[in-house]
Amino acid sequence: MTSMMECDRKPEAFVEAYQHPERAVDWDALYEGFDAACDCPTTMFVERLAEVYPDAKVILIERSPESWYRSMSNTGHRVFQTPIHPGAPEHVQKSLSMARTITWDGIIADPVRFGDKDAMMKLYRAHNENIKKVIPAERLLVVQLGQFGWKELCDFLNKPVPDVPYPFENTTEEFKEKYRQATGKDLLEA
């Protein structure tokens, strides 16, 4: 899997699309070379991407709001509280700046607003419900974090089940290590 932190995927174009939703976006150019996308910035453009790619399938991985908030407290929120290392590659600096700007209007970057746990969990639930509303049921697979594997995904995508264990990645520790490798700096500890 390739992330925006590993290559220059024009994060400034995503900021432009977010700040000016009335303007046309060349989504094909932004996603050139990719078959799939996950997480930020893609999740901030669900409605627009659903219109542009009407045959795309969407996998929504849900978890309890408590678990989501705890995870964001240990990862995303800390990323946004950690100053961007000036020695980090330019595309990494731009990607982090983009994520701070577009992730729910900067709420996760704002320590006061993010500190309102109940409001954040409500926002998370509303985000998931919006995806269920926007994406037609035949194009949407909703699964619970840790409660699915190759069979569910491959059945939904009409692909054969591979003969390898299903990967479990992006734990908090892996996230922190990827951040350190990309930026040359450790995340701030709470």
Automatic annotation (TrEMBL):
<dbReference type="Pfam" id="PF17784">
    <property type="entry name" value="Sulfotransfer_4"/>
</dbReference>
<dbReference type="InterPro" id="IPR027417">
    <property type="entry name" value="P-loop_NTPase"/>
</dbReference>
<dbReference type="InterPro" id="IPR040632">
    <property type="entry name" value="Sulfotransfer_4"/>
</dbReference>
<protein>
    <recommendedName>
        <fullName>P-loop containing nucleoside triphosphate hydrolase protein</fullName>
    </recommendedName>
</protein>
